Amino acid sequence: MDALKNARWVPVVAVALYVAIPVLCSVYYAVFPGGSFSLGAYSVIAEDASLAAAATRTLSITALTIVTLVVTLVPALVAVHLWAPKLRPILEILCTLPLVVPPIAIAAGVVALLGWGARQGRGSLPNAISQFLQNPDLPLILVGTYVVLCLPFTFRSIDAGLRTIPLKAMVEGSAILGSSTFGTIFRVVIPNIRGSMLFSVFFAVALCFGEYSLAATLSQQTIPVWLDDVSSNNFRASVAIAVLLNLTTWALLFVATLSAGRFSPAGRAVRAEKTLQKKTTQKALAS
Question: What separation in angstroms does the CA of 204 have from each of 67, 173, 207, 240?
């Protein structure tokens, strides 16, 4: 019986080793050059100005991707849950389509579309739009493609969050008190699905900081593309920065997992019950 209980940890340990060993090897390679500890590989952060530019560009793309996802998908899902539940399967299919389309195929389609716009001649509207979307300082074309890539996971997360709350009763109660529809969404609905929202936000951050193929195909130097460029002449520095990003991503996902449980309706109910029990115990001791 004890052997069976211990056996359930075998898959967990196997997955942990599978994930941890490459990261630990990368950490050792980055900070133990020649067998002695050194943070010299991280000097590239201060010495290479292109890293700051790539980081700023990636942060801007990430922020716009998150805002676009929240502003478009949350109202759409709330509307479908409230007034058009029969359309939910259609919305689900549309949002999960990026899972079956390889990112490189999306990149090929985007490049073809931008190339068509550029060939319309200088001064034409398609050419102006193509140039605007590919602005090196803020490539909005990457925002659009990253929003598409995040749709499947964001849809699942927010949809699950909306299913756990009495959405219709909340919206009707808020409307009776005089709130508008968008006021209800941002003041009532979103605070009640904070766990799902945080998970979606952190996933979008992880994707924007880790996606390479689209950015490289569109010739936009984000952090992953910068790492690839630097690796040709300073491989240890590229590994050091990659390790830093990897650990940051894992930390964000860890926080997202904790937040999803803490801010879920079940988590709030448990905390409220513990608070009530604590107050009841204190009153009983005082009396």
Answer: 10, 32, 5, 23
